[in-house]
Every structure is written in C-alpha cells, then in structure tokens.
Amino acid sequence: MKKTINTIENDKRTSTQDLMCQIWQAIDEGYTDFEINACGQHNIGGSVWAKEGSDLNFYVTNPGQRVGSMGAKGTNIYVEGSAPADTGWLNSGAKIVVNGDSGDTTGHCAASGKIYIAGNVGTRSGALMKKDPKFAAPELWVLKSAGSFSFEFMGGGTAVVCGLNCENMPSVLGERSCVGMVGGIVYVRGSIKNLSDDVFILDLDENDIEFLTNGLETFLAEIKREDCFKILTDFSQWHKIVAKTYEERQKHECISLKTFRVNKWFEEIGGSIFSDLITDDFKSYDLVQTGNSRLRKPKWKNYAYSAPCEYNCPIKIPTQKRFSLLRAGKMKEALELVLEYSPFPASVCGQVCPNLCLNNCSRGTFDNPLDVKMLGSLSKDIKIKPFEITKKQKIAVIGAGAAGISTAWQLARNGYKVEIFEQDKKIGGKLSQVIPEERLHKEILETELERFKNIGVKIHTSTKITPKLFNDIEKDFDAVIIAIGGHNPVVIPFEGYERLIKGLNFLKDCKNGKKYNLGKKVVVIGAGNAAMDVITEVYKQGGIEDVTAIDIQEPSAFEKEIKAAEKLGAKIMYPCFTQKITEKGVYLKDGRFLEADSVIISVGDRPIFDFLNKEYLDEKSRVQINEFMQTHNSKVFAIGDAIKPGLFTNAIASGKKAAENVIKFLNNESLTPVKEKDLIPSKRIKSEYYECYNSNCDNEQNRCMSCGYCRDCGLCRQSCPNNAITRIEHQENGRFEYISDDNKCIGCGICAGLCPCGIWELEENN
Questions:
Q1: Residue pair 212/105 in contact by the 8 Å Cβ criterion
Q2: Closest CA to 150 of 118, 189, 104
Q3: I need a labelling partner for 54 at 20 to 30 A (CA). Which of 17, 445, 497, 729 fits?
Q4: Using H for helix, E for strand and C for coil, what is the string for 488-556?
C-alpha cells in the first residue's frame, strides 16, 4: 500500500516530529510505500522498519537535512532533485538515491547500505565511513565531484567519484581530501590534486575493473543515466586511493614531545611563553602509569568461567571446547572429547536430550543457537580401545541404565575393574526398554551400547538382585553403586484405579512388539515427557480416533514433545483432577466426563529397593544418602533415578559425579564438594565480532562464540596501544596463552573491552 503525505496543509507546515509520527502510524497500519511532499523536514526515511520485515520505499521531494539518517536495511529512499547536508548520515543499510546534488557530509559515518548521487557532493562527504564486520560495507557513488576534505578519516567501505563533466576542474576531490584516511577504497575518475600524505594513488587491477563495471551499471540505472555507461567505463582515466599502513606513515621523522619542547619550542621561540613567571625544569612526567601505579590490571582468564552451554548442561560438557577443536582442524579430538563426559553423545545429546545447552546458547540472542545435536551425533562411530586396568580395587554397579553405565564408564576410564549387574536381558535401561523409535533410533543406541560393551567392563545381564546377592556383592567388592532406576509405576488410588494401564509397562511392552487393543478413544493421565512417549505408542497401535492427556498442572513435558503429540492429533487438558475411572471413561472432580475405551496412567515411576535391609531406607522406603551419594554404609553409593527422577542427562551426570566420589573414597581422600565454575556474564560476550548467518553443519564451529574460551583471534594483541600483550605457545602440549607485560601495560582495558570471548578481566591493582 502507498500513502501520500503532504507536509503543508492549510498554509501550515508539518514539523519533523509530527511527520515521523505519521510515518510510524502508517507503517503500523501496513503501509510500505510513501510519497512524501516535504518542506525541509529532517531525517526522512531514517530509523524506520516494518514489523514483519517488509521493504519500505520513500519517494521524497524537498527534503531537509539528514535524509536517510541511520537508515535501516530494507529501506529505499528516492529523492527527486537535490538534498541538503548529511544525506545518509550514519547509514546502517538503506539504499538512498538522490537525483541531483547532495550537500556537505553526504555519507558521513556510513556503516552499511548504498548511497547514489546523480550530481555533486559537498565538503567532508564520505568522512568517517567505516565497515562493521557484521554487515555489508557501505558504498557511496557520486556521478560528478566531491568537495574539499572528502573522505576525511575514512575507515572502511567504498566510494566512487565518477567526475562526469568535471574535466576542467583542477581536482574532482577538492582540496586536502582523504586526510587521516585509515581504511576503505576511493575510486576516482579525473584529475586529483593536493591529496593528503596519508594515502597512495594506485592503478586499477582486474578486480577493481570488475567491481566498477558491475557497480556502474547498477548506479547509472538507479539515477537513470545509463547513457553515461560507455564513457565511464573507459578505465584509463580511473585511479584508486588507499590508505597507507601505520608503518608506511612512519617513514618521516618522528620526534618525542620532550625533544620538541627542549630543542624546538624554546630554541625557535626564544624562551618559554611563561618565562617571566616560572622557570621550566625541562623534566617530563608520565600521566599514564604502568606497573604498580596502574589503577587496574588485566588478567587472561581462559576457561575461568563456564559458557552458557556448559553451565546449563547437567553433565557439564564443554561444547565450546569441542567447537574450538573443530576450528583448529582437530576433528578426531573434538569428537572424542565428549566421551570424557558421556558414553551416550549420539543417543542422548544427539537424540533424546531436550538440549538445555542449545536453549541457553549465546548465539541464540544473535541469530540462531548452535546445532549441538549435530555435534553429538557425529561422535556415534568413534572407536576406542578397551580401558587398561591399573588399579587393584574392584567396583560393582547395580543397574545398567544411563546412570549405571555412566558410572561404570568413568571408573573404567580411570583404570578400575568394574562389574555391572542388570536384571533385564539387555543393558541400556529405559533408553533400550522404553523410548520410542521416533525419539531414539535403534541403530544409534545399539552402536553406543556396543562401544560400552568393549571397554572392559564385565556385564551380568538377567541378574535380579536379591538380599543375599546384594550382601555377597557388598562383601566381595571395594565399592558398590546402586543405579537401579525407577521401574515401579506410580498409581493413584482413586476409584476404579484397577482399570488403569500402567504407562511404563505399556511402553516396555510396545518396545518388545506387543500389540494392545485400546479401542478408539484413549485418555492418558499425566502430561510429562513419558506421557508424550505413551501417546506416540498409542497412535502406533492403530484404529485410534481420539487421545487426550490430562494433568493437574501445566504439562511438564518439553515443548518439542508436546508439539509432536499434538501433531499426531492428541489434545492436552489441564488442570484436571480425576475423581474415578469406569468402563465408560474418566470422571473429573469438576463434573466433566471424558469418554475412554482405555485409560493409561503415566505420572512417574519409583525404584524398588526390595534387596536392601531397613538400615538403608527412610520411613518412605527411599534410600538415604549424604551429599556425596553415600548411604549409611560408606562403601555403598546410590545414584540417578534411584535417588531422584530426572532427565537422562541428569542420570549421566549423577553417574559421573558418583565415580569421582568413589575414586576419592577408594584413595582415602576427603569427599569435599567440587566447586563448579561460575557462568560467564553475558555482557562480556561481544556479538559485534561475529557475522550473522544461518546454521549449517559446515560453519557451526565458526558461529560458536566460544564463551569464556579463547578463540585465539589475536584482537587483544593487535589492539593494545602499548604492545604489552604477547602470545606464548607451549610446544610440549600444543597450548597457548596470552600474557600482558606489567611494565608496558597502562591498564586501559581495551583488551577486556573488545575480547569477543570475555577472556580478559580487569582487576583492581592493589
């Protein structure tokens, strides 16, 4: 839709503020095209955008200063006739076309976007142009000439001055252009004189000619001067201007302030201007101090903090380290690193885990979180040799689910002889027995279980633990870990509960190929993740027309699992309090009735400790442990769902922590709590360093912001004003570190201010 705005109504001129309010209101109403009959209003087309991301087009006559100021990407501004000063000031992505001359400081401080001028531009145009690494570099195209001091302090981007019909001008760039220029390129056609000493004039190469040829075609089409293409593509008349490097500027004599003061000022002037009042002692004193006189000092604190991915992962897998290894080309090491933390990188991290790491990824605040699932899946086929037994002690693990396997894995890695006892005919616990194929591919799990079977752990399957067998194990082993999991379904004793199908049993039966005759309508009591798995299996039974899951509170299942169930056709209702179950269905306490041929309950599972004597249990028959997972018998530990239900990652983390405690116990070390690293403050991660692009397997390692883990970019060393920072590489282990020299460092904090990973930290200098 197009909206026309006249800024003079009834001989009254609309103010700039009122005009901007009208534009914003029209955008909210869905307008994307604007015809603005202006009368000198400022900032037309600047700092506006459509909520849904549509392009905005402005057709403007008689604008005031700063047309397109801070213009955003997707904004297109067409000025009929000339424009005054500051056109495209701080342009941030807009396309601005002026079909006439443009005043002083056109394109001043532009950071992105394109500015096309069909005439001349005034003094200091293109000054302070720069390139933001997150966005495309700015471009300024001028058909005729530029005024004096143009491209002053230019730091990035591209300017093109075509010099059309300016053959008689002494310089198409005026006087003293490119003063202080440190970056970017200026292409010029025609005579150039009195340029700053800060730049070189170079001939064009093939890349320059290709850029200008393509760019001129677009530029001339925008300003409707295609007739000039032939004359402007005679590149024998063109040159390019580039800035000298810092080293190239140092070839002229540089003297210190002290030398100038003693040998020049006094010698040439004939004495101090204050000589009749004071006597100069000719001493110089530093205003900025180094060493102990600094207020602050920087410290390179690599991996002193946890990245959000690591901090929010129950297992504390340092994903930022894995991506760092990938950036260094160390694929094998990156994929093996995760096996130090979990035996199930593909099954759990890559498939069933809700990926709390991904949900908290810093990259998600910038564009999209990293694909951590992909990284976990890549570790599926990593082969490892059996772990060498180096310790005399032997350890028993009761239960071969996620927690038990995790503990056995960690203990075997540390050289201990481990035996694992499982009452089922195969290992894997609920991963093997319960999770539907849709959530966990059988081939992936079998591959990882096979890897576990080959590490040297002795496995006893189809072994039910009786009180006698437990007593024998407790006597024969130096430590025992109880990791039996929760396999006793919870049933709420409301009227008719005997009609219920237990969710855990249902899932196990389905996994073993059993078919149920559930009828057409099914109600599932419970709305957690396990209940969502039940719904998946219910629909696979066939003939199902209606499935409803009910809960007394907001569903605890993860959003992904809820959406998957709803996609199958299930409805989820809460809060719902069940009163009774009959052959007709479910009666709720608020009077509602849910017709059902079958009712399945899935509200949790509890462990069965029938092999333990009462000294191990509390009044609710739960195993009692201390903060180190020890029972009253210091050599017996309990972990995972045996002590608290949770995610598979919680079970794996519990197993890893238990292994650490067991090792300390066997070595007669104090079982002190391990202090976790603090989460790195989000404000220390600098998103400005990174480009914005979509996730794919080829660039995830580059997208990782490496929170709190040095990515070895060298920005700190390059930016230190006193060259105080050096990089040291340790040949013996291939590691590196950055060190700040106290005798050179002035404590300015630039290193900490620009470090994209938040590694440098400023401390008070006491």
A1: no
A2: 104
A3: 17
A4: EECCCCCECHHHCEEHHHHHHHHHCCCCCCCCCEEEEECCCHHHHHHHHHHHHCCCCCEEEEECCCCCC
**Closest to 634 measured CA to CA, from 583, 579, 675, 671:** 671
The two three-digit tokens of residue 121, written as one number: 């531009």
Q: Which residues lie closer than 8 Å to 633 by C-beta, 6 or more apart?
A: 474, 615, 616
Q: How does pLDDT run across 331-376, given as a tens digit for each residue?
A: 999 999 999 999 999 999 999 998 888 888 999 888 888 888 888 8
pLDDT at residue number 268:
45
- Give the residue-averaged pLDDT of 682-708: 78
Strand ranges of the sheet holding 75-80, from the earlier edge strand across to the other edge: 2-6, 33-37, 56-61, 75-80, 92-99, 112-117, 139-142, 155-161, 183-189, 238-243, 199-202
| 456 strand-pairing partners | none
Dihedral angle over CA of 428, 432, 437, 442, nearest 10: 60
> Among 119, 66, 117, 115, which Cα is nearest to 94's?
115
Q: Which DSSP string corresponds to 151-179? A: TTT-EEEEEEE--TT-TTSS-TT-SSTTT
Q: Give the bridge partners for 679, in sequence order.
A: 306
| CA–CA dist 55, 94 (Å, integer) | 10
Tell whether omega for the bond before 575 is within 30 degrees of 0, i.e. cis.
yes
Can you tell me the distance from the alpha carbon of 453 to that of 434, in angstroms, rounded to the nearest whole number?
20
Q: What are 422's two structure tokens?
A: 């499982």
Q: Output 617-623 pairs: Cβ under 8 A, ≥24 positions apart.
A: 623/482
Contact 395, 667 (CB under 8 A): no
| 323/705 Cα distance (integer angstroms) | 9
Residue 64 · residue 42 · CB < 8 Å: yes
DSSP 348-387: IIIII---HHHHT-GGGGTS----HHHHHHTTTT---PPP
pTM for the model stands at 0.69
Task: Read off the tokens for 379.
Answer: 């570790």
